[in-house]
Give the backbone structure.
Amino acid sequence: MNIRFTASLTLAFTLTFIMTGTAPADRPLTTPAPGGPRVIVSEPSTGRVSRPLRDLARDGGGTGPTVGVGRGEPLTPAQQAAEKDRQVQDLIGQATGPDEHTRAWAINQLGAMGEAALPKLKTAAAQKNLSKETQARFEALITILEADAKTRPAMKKKILVYAGAEHGELFPIVDSALAQAFPKHVFYVLRFRLFPVARMTPEGLKPSNVFVVAPDGAAQLLADSDATKKFFETALRAVTNAAAARRAAQAWIRLAQEWSHDGFYRFEIPPDAVTASMIDAGITASAKANVVSGGKGSLSATLTFDQRGKLKTVANAGSVQEGMRPICQATKLLDADPIVRKMAERSIQIMGRAARGYLEEQRAQAAPDLQQAIDRMWQRILEEGW
């Protein structure tokens, strides 16, 4: 049997087994459909992003992964800085766009960029034509990033006690309920990649970890529900009304998401999924987070507070099941076998925006033609709302 046919058949069988849904029309990515999105081309001789990508950004469209060209000349420090500035500006544009999911995703991406996003974010927040909602989001994000700039040194010092922790992805959690419940604390996620090739998780840590930095600069690992409950007992202000109880429950379920996270889930907390009621012994509050992409399932928690407003009990429930995850899909976007190409396209679509890090990594190692295919795939994800 032909070796190439065997490999293609094996990949097709693997992808068929782990995915559902109808594959897109059979069309090689090297030949864009008439009237489709413009091709995003990288210039391998200079390591710069070509004009079509800049045109898309200027016209208000989303942008593809911004990395240096893997087989071309490396980006200079000045080029890297300019590229990061452009990426920040593009994300700010997406954070003010009409799609709610895109706005939330862009805000989180800006949060992950940290202090580097602050100058342009402050300029954007000062514009007079912003909606009240967008301005409030920008101001909340600026507050978190300014706090991050002060507390990140303490976080970096804290994780040094875990050998290899510096290889994880460290970013602040951007969440209004957390900020309101704990206005003087900064929460972080330290995540270690599981897909397509897992990084070694340091001893004492998990693939996804929650840390909190107190006002005095002390950083603490909230390893599980028990540790988080102790933190709430000592740091949460007295919960004496239903509004405060709902805020606390929503803050809890936001942290609980991270204990199951691998970077590909996207959770949503519906407004009617956060409730609170007065009881004879105090207050009870519940919150639920649903997986809306990256898998299926939900997580919920019920908190009870005594008459003094102190957290008394926490009951966690629910589970999540992972969906499509990266294996080698990006490398198969130009495969000679149309079935393999379709499978690769569809699986990357299903992963959606969560595949960004994976696509950036693969793009950095790819030849120019595959880089273009990856850029086109990313543009489709943004345009089709995956």
Notes: Residues 18-235+325-384 form one domain.
